[in-house]
Design a protein that fits this description.
Blueprint: H1 3-9, H2 22-34, E1 40-46, E2 58-67, H3 70-73, E3 82-84, E4 96-102, H4 111-121, E5 122-133, H5 150-159, E6 162-170, H6 173-186, H7 194-204, H8 206-218, E7 231-238
Parallel strand pairs: 1-2, 1-4, 2-3, 4-5
Antiparallel strand pairs: 5-7, 6-7
Helix pairs in contact: 6-8
Length: 239
């Protein structure tokens, strides 16, 4: 995997000096890593993009599936093995032991069709792990359609024959606000040349980020409300 892609999705400690997505990415990658043991056997990465998390899983066979759009055509990092038409996943019934999908279903405008297809290609007892944002700006326009609550996701899984095994929300209430402020500040610093961007980020954003992360660890629990958060992480099993 390209080091730049890996750093973007699974930031190291030094990313606090230049990565405006540090909080949301570290919280998400940590949650995926904690639950990586559910993804095994023959695996489908639905909406795989650059397959940034493939090395976290112990799959025997890992197949990346993506939908070709004007945005994906311009993405040099796209690592899809198979493309599909946005409706039918081109694999037989009960083909996969597990399905993984990260930050994709918000781009799906026909969730009932797609979740039915994922259920179809997944073996009985197989696991479906997926993530999607709750707080995040519109992205990959115009193919960004929805933000899901935990209740909507539970409803969709149960509707399509899935039993929920585990569910997590990433990021505290405070961290979500902090991530938004950092992203806002990032839009105002110069981005060319790169060294100037890193310099301004280190001076004006990194200290605020570090102080905010320290505060997030010590704030009283009652302030860490769970109704405002960064990402949904859900693991479901086909009945």
């Amino acid at each position: 995997m390209d080091n730049k892609v890996k750093e973007a999705f699974m930031p190291k400690w030094h990313s606090v000096f230049y990565n405006p997505f540090y909080i949301i990415r570290t919280r998400l990658s940590s949650a995926i890593k904690r639950n990586a043991h559910y993804i095994k056997g023959t695996t489908l990465d639905f909406g795989c993009g650059s397959k940034p998390y493939v090395n976290l899983f112990k799959s025997d066979k890992y197949i990346g599936l993506d939908y070709e759009t004007e945005v994906s055509k311009k993405n040099d990092q796209l690592s899809a093995d198979v493309f599909y038409d946005g409706k039918h996943i081109p694999f037989d019934d009960n083909y996969f032991d597990s399905v993984f999908s990260s930050e994709v279903i918000e781009h799906v405008f026909n969730p009932d069709e797609i979740f039915a297809e994922i259920n179809r290609v997944l073996k009985p007892g197989g696991y479906f792990m997926f993530t999607c944002p709750f707080f995040w700006p519109e992205h990959e326009q115009p193919y960004d359609y929805v933000r899901y609550t935990s209740f909507a996701l539970r409803h969709l899984m149960e509707k399509h024959g899935m039993e929920i095994v585990k569910y997590e929300k990433t990021g505290s209430y405070f961290e979500s606000i902090l991530q938004g402020i950092i992203l806002y500040a990032y839009y105002f610093i110069p981005h060319k040349p790169k060294i100037l961007e890193v310099l301004f980020f280190s001076i004006f954003i990194t200290p605020f980020l570090l102080i905010g992360l320290a505060l997030a660890r010590v704030l009283p629990k009652k302030i860490k409300r769970s109704d405002y958060y960064l990402n949904n992480v859900m693991i479901a099993r086909k009945k």
